[in-house]
Write a structure and sequence with these properties.
Elements: E1 8-9, E2 29-35, E3 39-40, E4 58-65, E5 75-81, H1 84-89, H2 91-97, E6 102-111, H3 121-136, H4 142-145, E7 159-165, E8 175-178, E9 182-183
Parallel strand pairs: 2-7
Antiparallel strand pairs: 1-9, 2-6, 3-6, 4-5, 4-6, 7-8
């Protein structure tokens, strides 16, 4: 998507890491997602070997290789997995896997850092999945594309997401800062006439 016409990001006054709330805590929760190199996910496989054995919190990205395409495989779906059974039996992933061509899967292992509380992991992963969907706009995530991040049952938090390791040929943004804030400037009448 092109940048909205006549809009620009608001100036928060510094680097994201240096923006603090009234208590002096960093406003944006920083985390990193380490993406594995995509592996082929065959139709009859519950999951590629080694990928479903990941025990940490993770999101995953599905890409499709049509063979004759002039582009590198695009990201078509972003999902999350809280347990192995959901990953094995996810209906949308199964539908994509059964299409012609190769389906590849990459696991994004989330590192929340040392100040993360375990009880907040489930809603945090859902927020991160939603942010990735909004940043990438994959074609098979229809439902979450029509709801802004943080507008569901869990209120959104301020995130600074760093995507590391595999970058999907430049499709995956290096960083996502949420909530983004766009402003449309009026005419500046503050300058005095000399």
């Amino acid at each position: 998507m092109a940048a909205p016409r006549l809009l620009q990001p608001a100036d928060f006054g510094g680097e994201v890491a240096n923006i603090h709330n009234s208590l002096g805590h960093t406003l944006f929760k920083t985390l990193s997602i380490s993406w594995t190199k995509p592996r082929v996910w065959k139709r009859d496989e519950p999951a590629p070997k080694g990928l479903a054995d990941v025990t940490a919190a993770y999101v995953y990205a599905l890409t499709r290789d049509h063979g004759k395409s002039l582009r590198k495989p695009p990201i078509v779906y972003i999902g999350l997995s809280k347990n192995r059974t959901r990953f094995y039996n996810h209906p949308k992933a199964k539908k994509i896997r059964n299409m012609k061509g190769k389906t590849l899967v990459s696991i994004g292992i989330i590192d929340f850092g040392k100040h993360h509380h375990k009880k907040g992991t489930k809603p945090a992963i859902e927020e991160i999945e939603h942010l990735l969907i909004w940043a990438l706009s994959p074609k098979f995530n229809e439902k979450k594309k029509f709801t802004m991040p943080g507008m569901g049952k869990n209120p959104g938090r301020a995130w600074h997401v760093r995507n590391i390791e595999h970058r999907f040929n430049g499709q995956m943004p290096r960083e996502i800062v949420y909530p983004w804030m766009l402003i449309k400037l009026g005419r500046d009448r503050s300058k005095k006439k000399v």
